[in-house]
Design goal:
8% strand, 2 domains, alpha/beta, Rossmann fold, 5-stranded parallel beta sheet, single chain, elongated
Amino acid sequence: MSATPVLERLAARPDVAGALLLTGPHAPRLEEEAFALAAAWLCPDGDDRERRCGSCRRALARSHPDLLPLAPDGVQIRIDQVREALGFAAGRPYESARRVAVIPRAELLGLEAGNALLKALEEPGARMRWILTATHPEVLLPTIRSRCVRVRIPGPAAKDRIRDLLARGGSPEDAADLNLLDPGSEADPEALREAREARALIIAALAAGLGGRKLDALVALADVLGRAEPVVARRLAELLADAAVLAGDGPEESLRHPAVAGRLKEIAAATNGAALRAAAWKAADPPPDRRRGNARMHYESLLLELYLASR
């Protein structure tokens, strides 16, 4: 996959940005581009565009001594990982002119971890570069976003993702669902199956809680969402928005999940479009700090409000 023209220019100018934020819908591509850029910045031969030298090969393999990748620890990038990165940033390069830390999925930075990173992003120093990636940069602390040069990376074209899905054994039905369910995901039939299961779980809980007046179903759903990956929680916002459309709040052509429109109509009939729309907005704006059950309480609150508005 070729780099964007902006990234090609940045690769040739390692001193233009001390902290860079790559955003876009496709996390794997963001990570790929982040490490390709890190390899370019660490390369002793700036003209090696093929990235075949020993330095580039080690950087792309995440084994370069002047490269530090920060992987999430569970559902969060934790404060001790950022402290390790700050120690790395304070050291001298071993063999390159600079050091590079790459933080994929930076939206998983906990509040303490994000705050600890601020000073380093603002004043990285002459020999340190930071590259963050985020599919949902709005979740990041505003102070982190303001300290980074932001570059948007487009996701793969729909035809390319469909081709990849079919090559992995997906069906034509899967190909149709791929763009409806998760435009930023890998073209993987197993990932699509998991996305369908998450969608079915959310719909069943909403139907039981709103149509069946079973509050415990909504409480259980909030607990699941509080512990789930952000993509699962975002599914709730999509489904609530679709239900609001089906309650008369918009054109049905705008549905994100037409395959389950029948079930969503049942949910829409149990409440009203305004309540569904408000819940969808709230579901799309979870708290950035997921510690101490903050996310679970967030979803409990919005689902309780929806329950109280239901018929």
